Amino acid sequence: MMNQNGRPTRPEAANAAETVGTFTGNAALDIEEPLIFEVGTNEATGVDLPDPAPVTSRLGGHARKTAVNLPGLTEPETMRHYVRLSRQNYAIDLGLYPLGSCTMKHNPRLNEKMARVPGFADIHPLQPLATVPGAIELMAELSHWLMEMTGMAAVALSPKAGAHGELCGMMAIKAALKARGETRSKVLVPESAHGTNPATAALLGYSVVSIPARADGTVDVEAVRERLDEDVAAIMLTNPNTCGLFERDIVEMAEAVHAVGAYFYGDGANFNAIMGKVRPGDLGIDAMHINLHKTFSTPHGGGGPGAGPVVLSDKLAAYAPLPYLRMEAGGAVLVEHPSDTEAEAHPFGRMTAFHGQMGMYVRALSYMMSHGEDGLRQAAEDAVLSANYVKARLADVMTVAYPERPSMHEVLFKDDFLDGTGVSTLDFAKAMIDEGFHPMTMYFPLVVHGAMLVEPTESESRASLDLFIATLRDLAMAASNGQVERFKQAPQHAPRRRLDETRAARSPSLRWTPPEPRSIEPAEAAE
Amino acid sequence: MRYLPLTDTDRADMLAAIGVDAIDDLFVDIPADKRVDGALDLPPHRSELGVEQALKRMAMKNVSADSVPFFVGAGAYKHHVPATVDHLIQRSEFLTSYTPYQPEVSQGTLQVLFEFQTQVAELTGMEVANASMYDGSTATAEAVLMANRVTKRRKAVLAGGLHPHYRDVVRTVVDMADDKLVCLEADPLGTEDVIAAIDEETACVVVQTPSFYGHLIDLKPIAEAAHAKGALLVAVFTEVVALAAIEPPGAQGADIVVGEGQSIGNPLTFGGPYVGLFATRQKFLRQMPGRLCGETVDADGQRGFVLTLSTREQHIRRDKATSNICTNSGLCALAFSIHATLLGGAGLTKLAALNHAQAVMLVERLDTVRGVEVLNDTFFNEVTIRVDRNAEGVVDDLAGRGILAGVPVSRLLPKSGHDDLIVLAVTECVSDDDIETLATALSEVL
Amino acid sequence: MTKRFTEDHEWLDIQGDVATVGITTFAQSQLGDVVFVELPETGAQVAKGKEAAVVESVKAASEVYAPVSGEVVEVNTALPDAPDTVNSDPEGSGWFMKIRFSDEAEVASLMDEAAYKAFVDAL
Question: pTM for the full model?
Answer without folding.
Answer: 0.95
